[in-house]
Specification:
Elements lengths: L6 H27 L2 H6 L6 H23 L6 H20 L8 H20 L2
Helix pairs in contact: 1-3, 1-5, 3-4, 4-5
């Protein structure tokens, strides 16, 4: 017998985590977009904001799945698995290269492309 939160409280909690998830995306993608010129010059680097954004996305994404399941909402497990796999690749690349002075253009571009892909998976996969 678990404690069940009221529907209104659960909705607010889910929406708070959606907001935090979006902040994580903004941090990761914003860190990429602000360095487009540096990427062209070969001097782009993974910033702490990018790493923290990816970690925020991971933690809030897992929490959202749990909260939605606890509130008896349908969760598309295949979609979530694909999004998590993409995010794990992003997180691995950013974490491993976080202390590098500059990142190879193709690797930096891959993080931006994968992040954008994850956004479109979230929005378009219904």
């Amino acid at each position: 017998m678990g404690v069940r939160l009221g529907s209104g409280v659960m909705d607010v909690l889910i929406n708070v985590f959606v907001g935090l998830h979006i902040i994580g995306i903004a941090s990761l993608l914003g860190g990429f977009l602000t360095q487009m010129k540096a990427m062209g010059e070969g001097t782009a680097r993974f910033t702490p904001a990018m790493l923290h954004g990816a970690l925020t996305m991971l933690v809030t994404g897992v929490a959202l799945v749990g909260l939605n399941q606890a509130d008896d909402h349908a969760v598309n497990n295949v979609k979530i698995a694909v999004k998590m796999a993409v995010l794990i690749v992003i997180l691995a690349l950013v974490y491993v290269k976080r202390d590098e002075e500059s990142i190879d253009k193709s690797m930096f571009g891959a993080v931006g492309a994968l992040t954008t892909t994850n956004v479109f998976i979230a929005v378009l996969w219904t």
